[in-house]
Amino acid sequence: MMKAAGAPSRAEARERMEREWAALEEALAGLDEAQMLETGVVEGWSVKDLLGHMAFWAQEAGRNVELVQAGRERQVKRPEGTEVIDRWNAREQRLRAGRSLVEVRRELEESHRRALDALAGLAEEKLSLDLDIGLRVSGTLLELYAVDTYDHYQEHAEQILAWRRRGEHDPKGVT
Fold first, then answer.
1. Cβ contacts of residue 34 below 8 Å, gap of 6+?
2. What does the longest C-alpha to C-alpha distance in the chain come to?
3. How many Å apart are CA 53 and CA 150, to the nearest integer?
4. For residues 167 and 137, what is the distance between their CA atoms, to the nearest angstrom?
5. CA 10 to CA 120: how far, in whole Å?
6. Which of 9, 51, 122, 126 is deepest in the core (most CB within 10 A)?
7. Nearest in space to 112 (alpha carbons), one of 12, 10, 7, 14
8. In a domain, 84, yes or no
9. How far apart are the C-alpha atoms of 3 and 142, rounded to whole Å?
10. Does the pTM exceed 0.85?
11. Contacts of 166 (CB under 8 A, 6+ apart)
């Protein structure tokens, strides 16, 4: 099976995962707990909220890869449309509201590791599987994986850095 045009390879996906994870860690460097709990980073969300949000989507990525590996592609769930995505995001934010920052960071780290491990264990022939299977999902498994993991890390790291520049959260060296 050939790789779809524009789809990342496993090596490219892994490299981007590591690079965007490092950039996220750099964006978080120097923030204390009070700063991470302060709302207003994005639409009333705190850094902690964004970390929980990324944890959820990385969990989804790992779960989806595991489902495909097990031959259960039809069980891959995706929100259909912006309204549903917003409901999923709001639900996940509420679920993590009572959790500590330490718990949410641990969840993100575990989700990131699960997504990496799932990718590493995926059979070569399933890497470019087309997920246009009636779920209003179009693209390959690796393209979906990118959206739910490293593209998300990049998006939210950039938002955190922008928030830090706007406020009193910009330690020397953050650009």
1. none
2. 51
3. 13
4. 38
5. 8
6. 51
7. 14
8. yes
9. 10
10. yes
11. none
* Residue pair 75/133 in contact by the 8 Å Cβ criterion: no
Structural domain includes residue 13: no
Q: Which amino acid is at 137?
A: V
Work out how many domains the chain is built from and give that number.
1
- Asked if residue 105 is part of any domain, the answer here is yes
- In this structure, are residues 92 and 56 in contact, taking their beta carbons and an 8 Å threshold? yes
For residue 148, the enclosing domain spans 44-166
The per-type count for the chain, helices as H runs and strands as E runs, is: 7, 0
Running DSSP on this structure, what letter comes out for residue 54? H
CB atoms within 10 A of CB 170: 14
AA identity, residue 36: M
- The answer to whether 75 and 67 are in contact (CB under 8 A) is yes
